[in-house]
Amino acid sequence: MQRELSYEERKSKRREVAFVVTIVILTALSVLFTTLFITAKASETRANEEYRALAETTYRKSYYSLLYNVDGLEGASNKLTVASGKATRQEYLADMTAYATAAAENMSAFTPEETGDSKMLKFINQTGDFAKYLDDKLNKGGAITDADRRTIEEINASVAEIKRELAALSDEVERSDFSFVDALKERDGEFGETLAAFESKEIDYPSMIYDGPFSDSLSVREAKALKGEEIDEEGCRRVVRRILDVDKNTEISVRNGSKSVFECYEVEAMTPLGRAYLTIAKKGGFPVSVNLPEVSSTGTHIEAKDAERYAESYVRDLGIPDMKAVWASLYENVYYINLAPERDGVILYPDLVKVKVAADNGTIVGLESLNYIYNHVDRTLADPVVTEQEAAEAISEYIDLSSCRLALVPTKGDGEALAYEFYGTKGADKYFVYVDASSGEEMKIMRVLDGERGLLLQ
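The structure corresponding to this sequence follows.
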């Protein structure tokens, strides 16, 4: 029989149980608080990592957008230095305002703590303000003075410098271990040093406060050049065999292409040099695009004039007559040739056909004819109202003109206009300037750029 515990023994037992329970509770609370602390720290770490990743993405997007907008600002301000017509000047002033506004927004991402004191940001904002000031001045019947023109020259020079410096940072930015967050926090490294250098730039601000010519002029969405009956798949194969100069045993796969304005066939064919890919319009079997296999090049052996001659002969054999090379650019040992019809000495830019020619042996490796398909019609061209000499008077005296020809050019609103195309230089810069042959007003300025992808027009 179990002995009954005394009062003191029961009291001592209760203290022991209470102690054990207390230890268990304290241990549980300790584990709970530790878990909560670790969870909070982990959550804080994740939040910091997520914030850092978001900030890095924002900075990177801002950098590349800044590059784009500064490039546009430099192009527009450069063209403004040689523009003389009111309409063209206002066009480039509007471009400057738009690019400056966007660039300022991009730049503010890199100077959040000193936005008001950033000299570079101030310069970009003042450039936009100055462009708006000049636009208002022209709207009210005023003129751009010599002092205004000198300011435009200074602005263009400074923007060009900013453009070069920002582009030079690309190697650092594209390194796998580069971090905008770290570079901006420490203001060290090439990126931080470049931003600091911009802040020391001194510019004398006004006190009151950017492929070949018309190669992307697709606007009309009616396939005007397509004529004749629709071809079936076998008819498409015959067209492809003629284009590729291959026999009936050649493997040719034909399928329906996606329908947009006109229906076409998408074609894959095996040639002795590899696979070729073509798009053929069903109506009339007209070639829309041809992409031929490119073999490894052994170096440039033909001149641009020879590449132009091969391209002209190729499109003539395809049934596209009277085409003349109007633009040639060499990139990675391939000549990119733009061709347009010529009628009575007038170049018809809306009807462009683009051809790629291998620079080592003159082999045709590509063709695209969408401009021609959308725009080519039989036209009756009016005679120019103003003379070449009268048209030249509309161009800035700062451009040294060296050649001129008549051209039909696309205009806004799906229109076309007869124009004088002048080519000239200002220092190292090269330009095409278009003057309306009816009104004698300057219409458009294109600057020739010698870039990484060959000669380009801006």
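Residues 388-457 form a domain with the Nuclear Transport Factor 2; Chain: A, fold (CATH 3.10.450).
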